[in-house]
Design a protein that fits this description.
Strand content: 5-15%
Structural class: alpha/beta
Number of strands: 6
Strand order of the largest sheet: 3-4-5-6
Largest sheet: 4 strands, parallel
Number of helices: 7
Helix content: 25-40%
Radius of gyration: 16 Å
Mean pLDDT: 89
Length: 223
């Protein structure tokens, strides 16, 4: 339900806390398309969402350990849009896809993982916060082997249970993942910001080699 401007405002102080690295990285915040969410009772509200939900196990269902039933057609559509955004950014660096990474929280993290593991090129890395790898997301052996992946989660997440993130890790490892980091932080609830997440993201960016001097915020990704 967040938009790009809101995410940017949330992350400004967190990036500032990272020091020079947070200021040097080039940042592009993407808008998800506006769409109705089917699973909510009554009239389906229209929100920013990468895809529709047909179930609400992690909400009214009280079963956050069960993966939601999502609109896979929507996911396939936005996968193309995000791939196009990745391609456009890589082109600015002479086609060097290692200079581009994805970060997302909750549904955004799930979608980031989907886009990163399905792109034809191996990008610099992907950081999935409080999300999971969808069961419907195909994983190539090359992506599993070469892609740098960080899964961050809170142990008390009652929207997307940490167990779903761990199952994602198991699936990636079964496909041959070699560059996978998994961290479950004790006591954190869904999308609860923390110094630990900031430090983990900073380490990931440093390990991925991001040292660009240019910084830009703002780009829309709409269907």
């Amino acid at each position: 339900a967040c938009d790009a401007a809101g995410c940017a405002e949330t992350w400004k102080p967190r990036l500032k806390a990272m020091g020079d690295l947070g200021q040097r990285a080039r940042l592009v915040f993407l808008h998800a398309p506006r769409r109705a969410i089917s699973c909510y009772p009554g009239e389906a509200p229209v929100e920013n969402a990468w895809h529709d939900y047909f179930t609400d196990h992690g909400g009214v269902g009280g079963r956050p350990e069960i993966e939601e039933d999502i609109d896979q057609t929507h996911l396939a559509e936005v996968r193309i849009l995000i791939h196009q955004a990745i391609d456009a950014e890589a082109a600015k660096f002479g086609g060097d896809y290692r200079r581009v990474a994805l970060f997302g929280e909750s549904q955004g993290g799930c979608t980031a993982l989907d886009a990163a593991t399905t792109h034809s090129q191996t990008i610099g890395g992907v950081f999935c916060s409080f999300g999971q790898l969808y069961a419907c997301t195909p994983i190539s052996a090359k992506a599993a082997k070469d892609l740098k992946i960080v899964l961050w989660h809170g142990s008390r997440d009652k929207t997307i249970a940490a167990s779903l993130s761990l199952r994602s890790a198991a699936r990636l490892l079964d496909r041959g993942a070699k560059k996978l980091t998994v961290h479950v932080e004790d006591g954190l609830e869904h999308c609860q910001g923390s110094d630990g997440e900031n430090r983990c993201l900073r380490r990931a960016l440093e390990n991925w080699g991001f040292r660009s001097e240019e910084r830009r915020v703002g780009k829309e990704c709409r269907s």
